[in-house]
Design goal:
Blueprint: H1 3-19, H2 22-40, H3 53-76, H4 81-86, H5 89-94, H6 99-121, H7 123-165, H8 169-197, H9 205-209, H10 215-225, H11 228-234, H12 247-268
Amino acid sequence: MQWRQVQAVAAKEFRDRLRNRWVLAVAVVFTVFSLLITYFGSAAQGQIGPRSIELTIASLVSLVIYLIPLIALLLGFDAIVGERERGSLDLLLALPITRLELLLGKYLGLAGALTLSTVSGFALVALLLYQRFSWAGLYHYAGFVLSSVLLGLAFLSLAVLLSVLARDRTRASGLAIALWFALVLVFDLLLLGLLVATGGQFGGQAFAYLLLLNPADIFRILNVFSLDDVQRLYGLASILPPALSQVGWLGSAMLAWIVAPLALASWRFRP
């Protein structure tokens, strides 16, 4: 594999997203919603503006869990199948470039656009938190933004996998929306339903580890369940096993969700 070809494909994909103002649109959406949540998230308690960095992050988690997976899936679902439908895939593969280089270049270009839009969208909130909590607040917030980027990259990997597996853009888009519903909305409901149906006897501590089967839940554990203030507020310390409070272990699980679907897509995309 030659990285020059990978970089060329990635640069073209990134420039295309900048040219059609996709990055700008997503950054504006994140900026508006994150500022609204930061300013008015405590309005029910009679306060405007962030009360604490932990509760601010906990409020922003809901925004990220719903929006970033959806945006990542919609961004990448036609990365390969779209080229196939337009008839440009055979032309690209006729060039001195391998399928792995094309796939990786596509992913890296889309990942760069998604990362730029995410970081830009949360930049104004970072300035607000710095004015309120100084550098101590930015330390926790930077971890939140990094985990948000990793969540987007994980769902982007899943989107590229769907793009390789699907026969046309219509099926790919349908699978992307179905996957978003399954992982963001349905997965936790099924686990809770199973827990209630078995009277709390299902799984024990193994029940908590089932959350690792969903990158959205890994993100939630990293940013909500690991916060001391939130654990005390909701009594979560007695639910999660100690291993799930280790950032390095959870980060490795998130990286696995990025690498594994991309590796499977590369295997399936082979001639």
